[in-house]
Request: fold
Amino acid sequence: MNNRGFSLIEVIAAMIILTVGVLGLAASTTAIQNMTQQGGMTSGSASVAAARFDLMRSTPCASLASGTATTGKFRESWTVTTANQLRTVADTITFVASRRSRTVGFTTAISCVAASK
Reply:
């Protein structure tokens, strides 16, 4: 009997193991793609909120008001809360990632104390 080479059972077992590995890789590729897309959209929502906060900081305190807006793929809604000389702005950004609606919240505080000269 010749003992060189692989038996049919060994080849079939190796093919099954290889198939399971390739299928696992394909499944994780889709998950990674979805997470990358969601991460990009979350980063974009942070940029939208930062731009809103910069705009609010350049607005006189008496004119700060709650509102809504749409910027590209992002819907935002912000609320302004007053406490003495402090304005708290909470910005909620909603976007669609991986065919699901996602909401991310950001908050900042704006001081309304006049700068002394």
